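hey can u check if this looks right to u? its 70 residues, i copy pasted from the old doc so theres a chance i mangled smth
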Amino acid sequence: GIEFVMGCCKDGLRASSIRTYLSQVKRAHLVSGVSWEVDMYLPNQLLRGLENTAEPARRRIAVTPAMFDS
């Protein structure tokens, strides 16, 4: 838990990406029949802190079919 989150932070990943990766790791464990008994309290606290200190994501414009015709 904590080591994975810290490694992802060190690699510059955003909290939302790390949460997605953790979710997929948990899912892979459960699908393969491996128990998931990870205490997520501290990793969740680290992710909350990362969210609170991260710069806001830049806004992207929505791409519509009309834009492709231009």
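The mean pLDDT is 88.
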